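TA notes, week 10

Several of you asked for a full example with nothing omitted. So below is the full record: structure tokens for the whole chain, then the designed sequence directly under it. When grading your own attempts, check the secondary structure regions first.
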């Protein structure tokens, strides 16, 4: 890519960013958009009511920037939980890293690269020259200037490892502090037991009670057997949708603006007929729910939630093997009651194992198949290939602006569009893998999405570019550093454009909520009004964290190779810091919490990025005829991996389970609390399947078609 093509891409995306910022600053102040741009504030009743026309609301404003900036970490912890704090610490951590990297890269490495003469540069026609002149490729082979890059690699590694250690230590202490400050939670006193053996003459209920009274007599309280309710859950979801539709139509009947018709522009169906039809369907579904609910009482699953008198007692039962056969009486930490993923409890040990194997194969197949659109994207960065395969495009590609848009903007845009379909697929695959909580499903989907992104955004682009013809070298481990050293620098310009297109524009569109805005607009046009149901979304960590970490990977990897990318990445993290603080304050509300466990993914990804940079540095110094620097770089990845192992031993156990010191201290502190007896009495009802809970009112004798579901009780 030439410099003018990059400037074209930057200009297009900068214009889009300014447009989105302006639109958001105007649209968010309109009362009609309050549910779209501040659903959390509306739900919490923290939004001031606006009435009447005000010309000031039509003018752009930056007041939201100040509010986002002033948000303290204590407020963030209260509003979004520890996961929200960890999410924002990713940005602050990345800002620290790339501030250091930008100072070294732009002030030192970039001038050294540009002053080399390995590549011929015509300064009179600089806009039409390749950006490779700003990369390490332009440094002369065997030049002593390469020792500057060698020193920079060690200095950068030390800085990143220090910041990683500090963040890991800080968040582990924050996790302990949050535990001490928390109120008693049902999941702290509960474990899940699966693989309950069937004993002749005994029910599962009797088996569980007898086993835990026998082996945990001083701490065991009671248990709840899990029942198979998949059909009942589906009926409940159907009834919930029908009830909301009926309630909405009934509310429209009592408004002065309501018409007698509904549908597209209110022309297609009579509202009274539609209401009658929906009420009859709701009545049938509710009858089926009653029948299924009464028959589900006997459909037991060999799994149970077991309750204990103390956190320490639950921890002992959790971490010690319960039976001689390790596939029986298998214990897991119970999730929060609202976090339980009920559909997978009926799976046996063997079925869960098979599902994990199938999901692994499906994820690998999806990763391989995605290589095809990556090849299409890379073909757009080489116009000579397009002209060879499509000769009729030669006259069009000869136009300067067209060629600049195709090489500088279109490839990263197409790749981004393809990537939009992957997070839901990864979430679906994780949901059938055997996890018992939504938070674990999202965390697993986050890991899958991260490695998918690393392979298909980074490695696949490298291998499909200049390194494609040397793919067979990848089978020889000794040649991997040399292969990466050849292929990675060649794709620097593509990734700079990718950061601008996928990073800047995507972040600014997060503010505008473009898809939701269009849907809301169309709904108001065709149906005349919006639904009364306010849905407060939760932040999609499984999509956002991998995307953020992929940009971190690019910044760390290209720190030595093409430091020109660093300012663009630094701008991305600055934008993300402000935008997501605003979104966490006004839009997103936590539904499920992992207790800050996402940081382990961040730590592992950063270590991987560092090691990758160091391996590429070994190959680069070898290609540049500086074997001594290449040899002296070899200890660097070894030291980095040793540092990672130390962090795993020092901090990871805190993110896996709370230690005895914390559990016993917390139990003793609450021992004399009179509320604990009441809490333990209610504990046995905490993990009742929502599908089995009563949800009905008695039918009115005069109104047989009135909905039976209570709106306040719909919560599955």
């Amino acid at each position: 890519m030439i410099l003018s093509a990059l400037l074209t891409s930057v200009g297009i995306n900068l214009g889009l960013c300014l447009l989105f910022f302006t639109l958001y600053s105007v649209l968010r102040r309109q009362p009609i958009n309050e549910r779209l741009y501040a659903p959390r504030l509306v739900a919490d009743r923290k939004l001031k009511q606006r009435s009447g026309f005000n010309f000031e609301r039509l003018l752009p404003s930056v007041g939201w920037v100040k509010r986002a900036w002033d948000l303290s970490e204590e407020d963030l912890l209260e509003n979004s939980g520890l996961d929200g704090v960890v999410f924002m610490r990713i940005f602050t951590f990345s800002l620290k890293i790339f501030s250091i990297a930008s100072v070294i890269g732009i002030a030192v490495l970039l001038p050294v690269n540009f002053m080399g003469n390995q590549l011929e540069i015509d300064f009179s026609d600089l806009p039409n020259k390749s950006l490779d002149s700003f990369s390490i490729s332009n440094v002369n082979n065997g030049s002593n200037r390469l020792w500057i890059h060698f020193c920079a690699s060690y200095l950068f590694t030390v800085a990143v490892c220090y910041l990683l250690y500090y963040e890991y230590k800080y968040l582990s202490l924050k996790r302990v502090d949050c535990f001490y400050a928390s109120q008693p939670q049902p999941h702290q006193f509960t474990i899940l037991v699966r693989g309950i053996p069937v004993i002749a003459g005994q029910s599962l209920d009797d088996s569980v009670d007898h086993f835990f009274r026998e082996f945990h007599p001083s701490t065991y309280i009671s248990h709840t057997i899990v029942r198979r309710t998949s059909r009942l859950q589906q009926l409940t979801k159907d009834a919930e949708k029908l009830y909301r539709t009926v309630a909405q139509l009934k509310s429209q009947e009592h408004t002065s603006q309501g018409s007698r018709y509904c549908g597209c522009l209110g022309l297609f169906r009579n509202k009274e007929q539609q209401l009658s039809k929906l009420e009859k369907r709701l009545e049938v579904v509710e009858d089926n729910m009653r029948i299924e609910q009464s028959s589900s009482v006997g459909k037991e699953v060999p799994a149970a939630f077991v309750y204990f008198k103390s956190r320490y007692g639950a921890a002992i039962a959790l971490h010690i093997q319960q039976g001689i056969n390790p596939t029986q009486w298998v214990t897991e930490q119970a999730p929060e009651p609202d976090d339980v993923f009920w559909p997978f409890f009926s799976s046996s040990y063997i079925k869960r194992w098979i599902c994990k194997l199938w999901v692994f194969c499906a994820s690998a197949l999806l990763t391989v198949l995605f290589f095809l659109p990556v090849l299409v994207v890379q073909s757009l960065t080489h116009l000579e290939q397009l002209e060879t395969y499509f000769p009729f495009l030669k006259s069009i590609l000869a136009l300067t602006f067209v060629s600049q848009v195709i090489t500088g903007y279109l490839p990263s845009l197409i790749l981004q569009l393809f990537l939009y379909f992957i997070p839901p697929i990864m979430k679906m695959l994780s949901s059938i893998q055997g996890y018992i909580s939504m938070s674990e499903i999202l965390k697993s989907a986050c890991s899958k999405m991260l490695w998918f992104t690393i392979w298909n955004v980074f490695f696949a682009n490298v291998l499909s570019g200049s390194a494609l013809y040397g793919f067979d070298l990848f089978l020889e481990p000794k040649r991997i550093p040399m292969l990466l050293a050849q292929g990675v620098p060649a794709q620097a310009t593509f990734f700079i454009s990718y950061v601008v297109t996928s990073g800047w524009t995507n972040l600014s569109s997060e503010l505008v909520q473009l898809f939701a805005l269009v849907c809301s607009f169309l709904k108001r046009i065709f149906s005349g009004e919006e639904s009364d149901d306010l849905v407060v979304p939760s932040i999609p960590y499984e999509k956002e964290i991998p995307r953020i970490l992929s940009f971190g990977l690019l910044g760390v990897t290209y720190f030595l190779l093409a430091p020109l990318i660093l300012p663009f990445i630094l701008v991305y993290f600055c934008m993300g810091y402000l935008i997501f603080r605003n979104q966490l304050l006004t839009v997103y509300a936590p539904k499920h919490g992992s207790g800050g466990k996402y940081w382990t993914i961040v730590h592992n990804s950063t270590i991987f990025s560092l090691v990758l940079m160091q391996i590429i540095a070994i190959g680069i110094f070898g290609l540049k005829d500086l074997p001594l620097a290449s040899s002296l770089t070899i200890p660097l990845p070894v030291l980095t991996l040793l540092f990672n192992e130390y962090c795993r031993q020092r901090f990871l156990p805190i993110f896996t389970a709370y230690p005895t010191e914390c559990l016993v201290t917390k139990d003793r502190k609450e021992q004399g609390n009179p509320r604990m007896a009441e809490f333990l009495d209610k504990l046995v009802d905490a993990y009742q399947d929502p599908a089995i809970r009563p949800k009905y009112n008695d039918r009115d004798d005069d109104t047989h078609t009135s909905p039976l579901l209570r709106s306040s009780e719909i919560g599955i």
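The two ends are 51 Å apart (CA to CA). Use that as a sanity check on your answer.
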